[in-house]
Design brief:
- This protein has 1 helix and 4 strands; from the N terminus they run βαβββ.
- The two termini are 20 Å apart.
- By secondary structure, the protein is of the alpha+beta class.
- It has a 4-stranded mixed beta sheet, covered by helices on one side.
- It has one helix at 24-34; strands spanning 11-14, 44-48, 55-61, 64-70.
């Protein structure tokens, strides 16, 4: 869980559909190469599937990544 004293710096949404079988490493690659941002910067990255009924959120918290998956 995110600490209350650390806010999310920015929110980035990858608007093109993403294969929801991607795990943390695949989402990190998208954040770096496609979005062009450092995934450990404290920003929140959002990814959707083609039908837009699933969402994955990726954020770095102190010593590792957190992924939320809504379907």
């Amino acid at each position: 869980m995110l600490r209350p004293d650390r806010g999310i710096a920015c929110v980035y949404l990858h608007r093109a559909p993403v294969d929801m079988r991607r795990q943390i490493d695949g989402l990190v690659v998208l954040a770096k190469d496609v979005i062009g941002q450092d995934p450990t910067s404290g920003a929140l990255f959002g990814f959707i599937n083609a039908r837009r009924d699933k969402l994955k959120l990726l954020v770095w918290e102190r010593n590792g990544f957190i992924v939320w998956y809504k379907r």
